[in-house]
Amino acid sequence: MEELNLTRFQPATFHLTGFPGLEQFHMWIAIPFCLLYAASIAGNCTILAIVRRDQRLHEPMYFFLCMLSFNDLGVSLSTLPTVLAIFCFGLSDVLFNACLAQMFFLHSFSFMESGILLAMSFDRFVAICNPLRYSSTLTNPRIARIGLAIVLKSTVMLFPFPFLIKRLPICKSNVLSHSYCLHPDMMRLACADITVNNIYGFFAVLFTYGLDSTFIVLSYAMILKTVLSIASREQRRKALNTCVSHICAVLSFYVPIIAVSVLHRFGKGAPPVVHIMMSNVYLFVPPLLNPIIYSVKTKEIRKGIVKIFS
């Protein structure tokens, strides 16, 4: 009887969708996705290789950049199996537990990215507002503890999500709206009360994105106050220039999140393809842009790239 109930209320597989109505073009759609994955993975691996090879880059700023690159690789590799399976091989079904695992890792890496960006803003705050204590404040053991805290916080916050889904009877359908598994997408298929999922999901997002973004804004408010008190215009320009890469990384992460939230709230009449495109932008743009941003704006990274390819 238990096996019968399990198969009745939890489907063996979920059916993932790429771009509904464009199935005949999936092979062509696969080309830009493959290029995105190749560029993201190559860019982030290049950043890691440069920092590893150059002893002069073994500093807090570049250690945090390595964390960001590792995390972006995790985001790309979390979505890669199902996205390529759909667009390259026409395989749209994913096992129930595999979908739960993908959901957990995908949301975890997203939460970790927010925490890493907060840690990088703290790094810029200390470097500009208290430069004499920079080395003594951001020691290697302390940076390692910060990284471990980010991983633990995200993992603990996401740990209940798979269990919150497994307790729900999934009997409306087994068709998901994207080419990967997301918590909001999965819980909508339940034919039971999802209040607990909604409340905990809102709490997790507010506690992570809300707090992290607030502290990032506060960090930059204090950085701006310190920079404006510097007498020399050239020194002000140099101080702000060290923050440009991080500001661009923050915008590339939070702007798509805000856009997806606004579209979900006010764009219910928009075509489904718009929602799908915005969700893809939210997941694929930051891992692609971050290596480009730091390669363009950071002289040491540019020099490392030249050394590697020469």
From TrEMBL:
GO terms for cellular component: plasma membrane. Its main location: membrane. One of its GO terms (molecular function) is G protein-coupled receptor activity. It holds the Pfam family 7tm_4. Residues 43-294 form the G-protein coupled receptors family 1 profile domain. Keywords: Cell membrane, G-protein coupled receptor, Membrane, Olfaction, Receptor, Sensory transduction, Transducer, Transmembrane, Transmembrane helix. It is found in: Cell membrane; Membrane. The chain crosses the membrane at residues 25-50, 62-92, 104-122, 143-165, 199-223, 244-267, 273-293. InterPro entries: GPCR_Rhodpsn, GPCR_Rhodpsn_7TM, Olfact_rcpt, OR51/52/56-like. GO terms for biological process: cellular response to lipid. It is a multi-pass membrane protein. Belongs to the G-protein coupled receptor 1 family. This is Olfactory receptor. It comes from Podarcis lilfordi (Lilford's wall lizard). The lineage of its organism: Eukaryota, Metazoa, Chordata, Craniata, Vertebrata.
